[in-house]
Amino acid sequence: MKRVILACIAAALLATVGRARAQTAQDTSVEHLLMRQALSDQPGTDVVVVSVDYPPGGTTAPHDHPGSVYAYVLDGAVVSKVDDQPQRTYTKGQMWSELPRQRHMVSRNASATEPAKLLVFFIVPHDEKKLITFLPAH
Predict the structure, then answer these.
(1) What's the confidence (pLDDT) of residue 127?
(2) What gap in Å lies between CA 40 and CA 27, rounded to an integer?
(3) What is the spatial distance between Cα 137 and Cα 125, in angstroms, rounded to a whole number?
(4) Is residue 136 in a domain?
(5) What's residue 1's pLDDT?
(6) pLDDT of residue 14
């Protein structure tokens, strides 16, 4: 279990930091890669850990990921909606998970006045460099 958590953290970091994108009004989150490490008991698989900072009112544009995602709220509150599931607000100490290629339609700071912060773990194929793919606008 400890390995899975560490792997998830590492994956999250790489996904956030490793993505190449232009900052837009719909994407104001700031990601920091904390770790990327191969999982020794799962050849061809890496764990990536990132932190995601949301300024007051900050958002991440709709997107998906190539691997499993585990997101933990470190500070503040984050609104999340995955696929057609109901939108939920997660507060400090709560978490959610996403399956590979699930559509993360809403990801934003719940507050217009206070920052929020996530710790995100990804479990991804070793050769996967792009941890986030932004969805086309409708």
Answers:
(1) 86
(2) 34
(3) 27
(4) no
(5) 47
(6) 41
Other CB atoms closer than 10 Å to residue 7's CB: what's the count?
A: 29
Q: What per-residue confidence (pLDDT) applies to 137? A: 77
Q: Which structural domain range is residue 27 located in? A: 2-129
Half-sphere exposure in the Cβ direction for 36 (13 Å, CA): 19
Q: For the domain that residue 102 is a member of, what is the CATH number? A: 2.60.120.10
Rounded-to-integer distance, Cα 112 and Cα 69, Å: 26
Stretches in the chain below the pLDDT threshold 50: 1, 4-25
Domains identified in the chain, total number: 1
Q: What is the DSSP string of 12-73?
A: HHHHHHS-----BTTB--EEEEEEEEE-TTSTTEEEEEEEEEE-TT-B--SEE-SSEEEEEE
pLDDT of 53-79, one tens digit each?
999 999 999 999 999 999 999 999 999
Strand 116-125's sheet: what is its strand order? 30-38, 45-54, 116-125, 68-75, 95-98
